[in-house]
Design goal:
By secondary structure, the chain is mostly beta strands. It is built from one helix and 20 strands. It has one domain: Jelly Rolls (Sandwich). The model has no long low-confidence stretch (mean pLDDT 96).
């Protein structure tokens, strides 16, 4: 059984991002129980523009809804649509001009000077391989598309999009990577009455002690410690942009997840 302090710590890991027009910080080490990950949300109406300044962070933006034109030091009139993404390094200014009402998630982490500005155009028909993958099996099978893969130059971030199956788990068996990386799950395409369940628990085999977060479109849940399996309700599937932020550049790897041995057989 969790003590009250631990319960409230885990409960605080969920935030509901704003739908108001503009740029909003959802999660930050300055205000939340995390050290490495920052998450922002940008909402724009057609014709609106927003300049995003990276300061000390590397930033990775993924278009969730709508479309934008991007201009910056290394980008000129770059058109991004649903699930297209852009990565830019610290001390850059990038202007997003909305061409269709848009909703964009932006992940950030400390920039160690390793990355290079880049972008990726989403291709749902990409063959299975380094970018488009199927993870898990049975009720835990899900489709993963990297938006910022480990082989693309960056300092700390690895990011992607996951789609689960209807009524299924999207991260089973449970895993943790608390010594190396923090993660944020940023949900979308899950408007009411659809919803999912995001579990947060700290000790192996203690799923019964989990704090369960109901998640819908706009929900952001961080995983600074412990295990974090997710599940969709019947007639709904989980969909989320996930961002991993390494504590150090050498931990910017996708193979450091540790399965909960209590459930690893399933």
């Amino acid at each position: 059984m969790l003590d009250d302090q631990t319960y409230f710590e885990l409960e605080s890991w969920k935030k509901q991002s704003s739908t108001v027009v503009g740029l909003h910080t959802v999660v930050s080490p300055d205000t939340d129980d995390c050290e490495a990950i920052t998450v922002m949300r940008l909402n724009l109406k057609k014709g609106d523009s927003e300049v995003v300044v990276s300061d000390k962070l590397e930033l990775h933006a993924v278009v969730i809804q709508g479309s934008v034109t991007v201009n910056g030091e290394n980008f000129k009139d770059l058109n991004l649509k649903r699930f297209d993404s852009i990565y830019f390094v610290k001390n850059h200014e990038v202007k997003f001009t909305c061409t269709e009402d848009c909703f964009i998630y932006i992940a950030g982490a400390i920039d160690d000077g390793i990355g290079e500005d880049s972008y990726r155009i989403y291709d749902p028909n990409l063959p299975l391989g380094d970018i488009h993958q199927i993870h898990g099996k049975g009720v835990g099978q899900r489709e993963v598309s990297f938006t910022l893969d480990p082989n693309t130059k960056a300092s700390r971030l690895i990011c992607g999009i996951t789609f689960g199956n209807v009524g299924a788990w999207t991260s089973w068996p449970p895993h943790q990577h608390e010594n190396d990386l923090e993660e944020a799950y940023c949900y979308f395409d899950m408007d009411a009455p659809c919803c999912g369940m995001h579990y947060s628990y700290l000790e192996s085999g203690k799923l019964e002690d989990a704090v369960v977060h109901k998640v819908t479109t706009g929900s952001v849940v961080i995983a600074p410690r412990g295990y974090h399996p997710t599940c969709a309700t019947p007639s709904c599937r989980n969909a989320y942009f996930w961002a991993l932020a390494a504590f150090r550049p050498t931990s910017r790897r996708y193979d450091l997840a540790i399965l909960d041995p209590a459930y690893a057989y399933s």
